[in-house]
Amino acid sequence: xxxxxxxxxxxxxxxxxxxxxxxxxxxxxxxxxxxxxxxxxxxxxxxxxxxxxxxxxxxxxxxxxxxxxxxxxxxxxxxxxxxxxxxxxxxxxxxxxxxxxxxxxxxxxxxxxxxxxxxxxxxxxxxxxxxxxxxxxxxxxxxxxxxxxxxxxxxxxxxxxxxxxxxxxxxxxxxxxxxxxxxxxxxxxxxxxxxxxxxxxxxxxxxxxxxxxxxxxxxxxxxxxxxxxxxxxxxxxxxxxxxxxxxxxxxxxxxxxxxxxxxxxxxxxxxxxxxxxxxxxxxxxxxxxxxxxxxxxxxxxxxxxxxxxxxxxxxxxxxxxxxxxxxxxxxxxxxxxxxxxxxxxxxxxxxxxxxxxxxxxxxxxxxxxxxxxxxxxxxxxxxxxxxxxxxxxxxxxxxxxxxxxxxxxxxxxxxxxxxxxxxxxxxxxxxxxxxxxxxxxxxxxxxxxxxxxxxxxxxxxxxxxxxxxxxxxxxxxxxxxxxxxxxxxxxxxxxxxxxxxxxxxxxxxxxxxxxxxxxxxxxxxxxxxxxxxxxxxxxxxxxxxxxxxxxxxxxxxxxxxxxxxxxxxxxxxxxxxxxxxx
Amino acid sequence: xxxxxxxxxxxxxxxxxxxxxxxxxxxxxxxxxxxxxxxxxxxxxxxxxxxxxxxxxxxxxxxxxxxxxxxxxxxxxxxxxxxxxxxxxxxxxxxxxxxxxxxxxxxxxxxxxx
Lengths: 582, 114
Known about the structure:
Helix content of chain A is 43%, strand content 23%. Chain A is α/β, with parallel strands linked by helices and 582 residues long. The longest helix of chain A has 80 residues, at 483-562.
């Protein structure tokens, strides 16, 4: 237990500052111990060591000693300049000390026992002169070819590594790889703490550099072979960033640039930061769709980065003019940036590092690759998947919406990509040819779209002067039609509909006529009835008058007979009778 | 023609060889303090020089512990190292100089492979 604790305490790490290396070593090289970097000629050993030293001096305040056995100080300074470090300046500021060890075999005669104390003294004085914390010995093995006595050398190298540990400097020792051993002279026997192996392979004429940590005593580390490359910013090891599935997500939706496509994606378009794949065979409109998406992004005032692997920027701009997209103005405004390169120009890793670099520089909200299929061909499926996973993770972390197109080939399943990257894709649109009645038309449908209720319809995809349009495919009478067949069917239906409508109109008129006749009849009957009622009324009135007159006559007669007025009823009747008469 | 030229060369060579016997040797011995190898080397070099180069050599013994900068300037790796500065060509003899044969070859007093 106590020992384990001590190990944990002593295992301080020394950050290299090299992009990717600190991630896979989980913090850097073992501090205060020597690390062996081995690899064949040209695998980048010196450069890695150099960058370790320079970044240490510049970024971590740890001065370093570079002891070279091969390159002259002038060559060394040139190499440093190529990485953007001014060696002479750093030397004058006391950040770096160099020592070029020259041994000429022809000058040397062995006359008895000796040791390499001279080397120790030189190294020690260089370390003391600037208070160095880091040391690089490049390539200490050169001693073996220059000094004849291997027995002495081995003993002295063992002593050297112990000495370096005692001095507490973090050292990198480089060594050429041998046939059966890691290094030609078996340096790995002496440097037991950390061994990094660099490999330089050519597979199908594409060269790839790879890095592997063979051992790292007392620390966990990434065990895979990691592709890396060297550019003007030094060494970059992929993964440049190691990410998990914990990126932030957005509920914001962004338009696809095609209103009808937005409608298909539950009316609002893609999620921001999602990964969109458009696959289709040649000539199905993938580039047009990506350009429309780019145009929509620029209209929103967002920066858009467009990686074109098949066409030059000028050609894309010209061609997109034919569907009414003026991309040139966005380029001039600085919102749209094209980056064109032939996929075969360099290996997959280089492309991906280029992606990273340009993304970091341009900081886009929308990132388009047209097409990724060529990249897929640059590596094996698993390689592509692991690298694209990291790229997409990175983009998601940055909340950059990613739009990838994929050229599928005839004869292959359209969903071929699924085996490789489908799981990484959030929204997958498929463009396909629909061949029918001697015609080829484009169709679009949504294969999947995570997190939204998307349309399941195949839409006909039209490229017009005003951009992309989607039209519902004719789906009546049990078959799907596109293009002129759809148009013909439409016309036929229209004629049929017209005839139908006329027939209906005729019937309507007939009905109206009947209704009117009926109404006329009703009116006549009603009039007749009214006349009858009037007559009846008159009859009744006449009768009443006659009755009234009768009553009056009777009262008159009573009056005449008795000479006195009649009862009140008779009087009232009389009055009424008078009024009526009037 | 060729023969004549050959003769001339031989003559010149003999002349040069005779001259070499009189050439002054400038030797520098780099040691590391008073380690056994250092003391052996100093003793051996002094003895051999007296035997073979009596009166026409100049030997300087330098302790690189005390003058580490010289180690870098003179490209010293191994210790002890004897540098024959003159006559040219420059030679470096490494070791404690116990191998007399190699010492003599090293400072060009004996031809190589004889």
